[in-house]
Design goal:
The complex is a heterotrimer.
Chain A (H helix, E strand, L loop, with lengths): L2 H22 L3 H26 L8 H20 L16 H23 L4 H21 L9 E2 L14 H24 L1 H11 L1 H6 L4 H27 L1 E2 L6 H14 L6 H19 L3 H15 L3 H7 L7
Antiparallel strand pairs in A: 1-2
Helix pairs in contact in A: 1-2, 2-6, 2-9, 2-10, 2-11, 3-4, 3-5, 3-9, 4-9, 6-7, 7-9, 10-11, 11-12
Chain B lengths: L2 H32 L6 H19 L2 H22 L9 H23 L15 E4 L3 E4 H23 L1 H11 L1 H6 L4 H24 L9 H15 L4 H26 L5 H26 L10
Antiparallel strand pairs in B: 1-2
Helix pairs in contact in B: 1-5, 1-6, 1-8, 1-9, 1-10, 2-3, 2-4, 2-8, 2-9, 3-8, 5-6, 9-10, 9-11, 10-11
Chain C lengths: L5 E10 L2 E11 L4 E5 L6 H9 L6 E6 L2 E2 L5 H7 L1 E4 L11 H13 L13 H13 L15 H14 L4 E5 L7 H14 L5 E4 L3 H7 L2 E6 L2 E6 L1 H6 L1 H11 L1
Helix pairs in contact in C: 3-4, 3-5, 4-5
Classes of the chains: A mainly alpha, B mainly alpha, C alpha/beta.
Chain lengths: 327, 306, 249
């Protein structure tokens, strides 16, 4: 086993052990923090498929995170007010069922990623960064100026949505749901890396001409990666909204895009468990530094600057060595 | 929409566009010459606004405030270039994005630490308060007209700088071929610092000018930064002319759209629904404009390459 | 002329004042190696780019398998069976040698790419890739990371990836560049066998290899083909001696 494999097991086990311990000693707040880590890590896993595997520096993933959040908010708010979303041509009602909400979150964010990707992947480099950032901002302004779903104030959902057979109001059970989805996404990501698609996508990042001369289209590969990436981040958005029982335009803001990227970078780009390590580090810092100083973002900024300038492999790179492991 | 309202909105659009131009010009220069994407450009805009508000508050002089904005933003720009940015020229865009994102965090929280979370206000100088009557009897705020005039003057100055001066020749040479300009014996790292500080000063000036019509607060820079990105995508990267045309297009689309869209929807909806739908659509218009440019000319209206 | 697998008809490409291809007409026939030589800046790379689809000619046509492919993308031409190798190796350096060859096999197979099943467990693809590696003399390095290969081995891998495509024609951009004499002799032997499978358009600086391999030679100077013929004919051609061999020899 390589050091990275061992480290991955430690990270994964740690994220499971901490809330279980917190459950035993009855510290629900710690469980909530762990749930937050799992959800944000899921958002990061989504971004990492585009960024780490595809080399696509998307600064607009807040769009998908927010769409997932609003998919939850809109469906649940209609369910709690007993008003249908739409009556004609066909009746669509709200729902409080997580699986249906997740499905809607996946579909909406995948469609948005398809549209944004089809436009922004016509370009590359800095253009791609600026365009994804701009489209993210478009959703931010749209959510503010659309009054039907709370506008600037956002939407509150009074009771957490349900999952068949589980009590989602119990923190540890909700954590279990989020953790299971994270594990599923990590599994999918691991399979993806070794799949034909993953091989071609990784090659398109390293040498697009090569991919073209074997008859494959880098554009289509990247678009598919962007859609998968956006859908996973969208699912994380739906869970995040359920965690807070609240959605607001903040989910769409450029800071959110930046933070999702920070999870990936702090942990290590292109590392399977990078987003998990990064999200855990981020939440720990927020909790520890945030307790020490109101201005903890200064320290976060300095840390990020140091990582970028001097420790480009992120946390996992520091511990497991610079080389990304392949076999 | 009456004609007077329309002309007023066109002027507002111009004023907004000119401010965007001051931001976009610096960004596009820095990208064109150094190949760097700088997310912290919005922070320099904020630095200018805070410097102007603070100095004008202490001295009571708007002009001193403007001078302070230029000086503070240029100094902050030069400092950041020397400490951080120059380590990023050879890095990939991801590293540039992350490092300059980190700078945003540091600038924003640092400013909050120094000035607190409450907004500051910068008063319009006495000479420019109140409206001016334009030909045709249109009343328009004197200060906004002054912004348009200052911005156009600076745009003209920039074109002159780029096309006629030694510095401009070096900037253009640097855009074309970095090794060439170094081989010619130009001190390239000094040139980079100057270009970066110049871009920063323009952003700081924009922040100070806008500071008198909006609240001066932490986070004011980034929404403008993102609009400046839209401008650059539309205009084409590295092109000052593209930045000017793009800025005016975005400025006019934004201001006219927010009036025109609700009016359009009022034709087939009741008033409040039209207002709601119209303003939601209007908020997306400039991005739709950007999308159209991407479909038609992915390299931007005046861009050379993708 | 109908027997040609690949042909250009009068293709012209200008960059500003420079005419990089000036009415180039040439063809590649079954079973042959047709070498294109010329001094630096003669327009060889531009010619290859137009043949393979990276650049569109301003005028003239590129014909492949009897079809006008001038407006087709690189990707479509590759799918038709046009395989190229790059002067500066364009390989996925982080991946293994085998994975690079499997990528070629994936492209050759076509269809949609799977998301779940590991690509290396696909026996058909793996066999295609291993077979190509073996023929190119890289079988022992299948599990090596491409970035760890020597310069010469990377050129071999370039050819191996092209082989996995089971192409109808090869376009090779300086496959010998930077190789030692031993490696270059081995690759020469290999290309010699390969021509029976599919003809090779060979752009090469290594004159020993060119004279040993080429059935026909075309000499490109300032975007124009000044002579085409057998090695003996080209050696005897006075224009070529003045324009090219005179400077070089």
């Amino acid at each position: 086993m390589s050091r990275e494999t061992i480290l991955n097991a430690v990270i994964f086990g740690g994220l499971l052990a901490v809330p279980l311990w917190a459950c035993i000693v009855d510290e629900p707040f710690t469980i909530t923090l762990a749930t937050k880590v799992a959800i944000l890590a899921l958002a990061g896993v989504g971004l990492n498929i585009a960024l780490g595997l595809g080399g696509l520096v998307s600064l607009g993933h807040a769009a998908f995170f927010g769409l997932g959040g609003y998919a939850m908010g809109i469906l649940a708010s209609h369910a709690q007010s007993y008003t249908p979303l739409m009556e004609s041509p066909l009746l669509i009602e709200g729902t409080k069922s997580m699986p249906i909400i997740w499905l809607m979150a996946l579909i909406t964010s995948a469609l948005a990623a398809l549209a944004i990707g089809a436009l922004s992947l016509r370009t590359s480099g800095v253009y791609f960064i600026m365009i994804t950032l701009a489209f993210g901002q478009m959703f931010y302004y749209l959510s503010i100026s659309w009054p039907a779903y709370g506008g600037e104030d956002g939407l509150s959902i009074y009771v957490r949505n349900g999952f068949p057979g589980l009590n989602t109001l119990d923190p540890i059970q909700f954590f279990a749901i989020c953790f299971a989805l994270l594990a599923l996404a990590l599994w999918l990501n691991a399979r993806l890396i070794r799949s034909p698609f993953g091989l071609a996508l990784g090659a398109a990042r390293q040498s697009p001409q090569r991919v073209e001369t074997v008859g494959l289209s880098p554009f289509r590969l990247r678009l598919a990666a962007f859609v998968i990436s956006g859908a996973i981040t969208g699912l994380a958005g739906a869970l995040f909204a359920d965690l807070n029982r609240f959605v607001s335009p903040t989910m769409f803001s450029w800071q959110t895009s930046g933070e999702i990227m920070i999870f990936v970078i702090l942990g290590g780009v292109g590392r399977l468990y990078g987003p998990v390590a990064g999200a855990a580090l981020f939440i720990t810092l927020e909790h520890v530094l945030g307790g020490l100083s109101e201005f903890w973002h200064i320290y976060l900024g300095l840390l990020l600057l140091l990582v970028v300038l001097f420790a480009r492999g992120g946390l996992i790179g520091l511990i497991a060595g610079r080389e990304v492991h392949h076999d | 929409m009456t004609l007077i309202l329309f002309i007023e909105q066109v002027l507002n659009g111009l004023q907004f566009g000119i401010m965007l131009f001051l931001m976009a010009a610096g960004l596009t220069l820095v990208f064109g010459v150094m190949g760097l994407i700088n997310l912290a450009h919005g922070s320099l805009y904020m630095v200018g606004a805070f410097a102007a508000a603070a100095v004008a508050g202490w001295t009571g002089s708007f002009v001193l405030g403007l001078a302070a904005a230029l000086a503070a933003a240029a100094a902050a720009g030069a400092l950041v270039e020397l400490l951080v940015i120059r380590r990023l020229y050879d890095r990939d865009h991801l590293d540039q994005v992350l490092a300059t994102f980190a700078l945003i965090l540091i600038f924003s929280e640092g400013t909050r630490y120094l000035f607190g979370s409450f907004p500051l206000y910068l008063d319009i100088p006495d000479a420019l308060t109140g409206p001016v009557t334009l030909p045709g009897g249109i009343q328009y705020p004197a200060y906004r007209l002054a912004i348009i005039a200052i911005g156009l003057t600076i745009a003209a100055g920039l074109f002159w700088l780029i096309s006629r001066t030694r510095l401009g020749i070096r900037i253009r040479a640097g855009e074309a071929d970095r090794e060439m300009i170094a081989a010619l014996g130009v001190d390239i790292s000094k040139l980079y610092t100057i270009v970066f500080a110049l871009g920063a000063a323009l952003a700081g000036l924009a922040g100070a000018l806008v500071g008198a019509i909006q609240a001066v607060q932490v986070g004011m820079g980034e929404p403008v930064l993102i609009l400046a990105f839209v401008v650059i995508v539309i205009g084409g990267i590295g092109s000052i002319k593209g930045a000017l045309i793009g800025s005016l297009l975005v400025g006019l689309t934004e201001t006219l759209g927010s009036i025109a869209m609700p009016a359009l929807f009022r034709l087939f909806m009741d008033n409040s629904a039209a207002q709601a739908t119209g303003s939601a659509i209007a908020s997306m218009l400039i991005y739709v404009l950007m999308a159209l440019v991407l479909v038609w000319r992915p390299q931007g209206l005046f861009g050379a390459r993708v | 002329m109908t027997e040609a697998i690949l042909a250009t008809h009068n293709i012209t490409k200008r960059f500003g004042a420079v005419t990089a291809s000036d009415g180039v007409t040439m063809d590649l026939r079954p079973g042959e190696i047709h070498a294109v030589i010329g001094p630096n800046g003669a327009g060889k790379s531009t010619l290859i780019a137009q043949i393979c689809g990276g650049l569109k000619p301003d005028a003239g046509q590129v014909e492949f398998l009897g079809q006008d492919v001038s407006t087709l993308t690189t990707r479509k031409r590759a799918r038709m069976g046009l395989a190229r190798t790059f002067q500066i190796s364009a390989l996925a350096m982080e991946n293994t040698v085998l994975e690079n060859a499997v990528l070629g096999a994936l492209g050759a197979r076509g269809g949609t790419l799977g998301l779940i099943r590991p690509v290396l467990r696909d026996k058909t693809l793996r066999d295609m890739a291993l077979h190509a590696l073996e023929r190119a003399g890289l079988a022992d390095h299948a599990k090596t990371r491409t970035s760890e290969l020597s310069h010469g081995q990377r050129r071999q891998l370039e050819v191996a990836v092209a082989l996995t495509l089971q192409p109808k024609a090869f376009v090779m951009d300086e496959p010998m560049a930077g190789m030692g004499s031993e490696g270059s002799a081995r690759l020469t032997g290999f290309l010699d066998e390969l021509r029976a499978e599919a003809p090779i358009l060979l752009v090469e600086h290594d004159m020993d290899a060119v004279f040993a391999l080429a059935d026909r030679l075309s000499v490109l100077v300032y975007g124009k083909i000044i002579a085409t013929g057998t090695v003996a004919e080209i050696r005897a051609n006075p224009d070529v001696r003045i324009a090219y061999l005179g400077e070089d020899a």
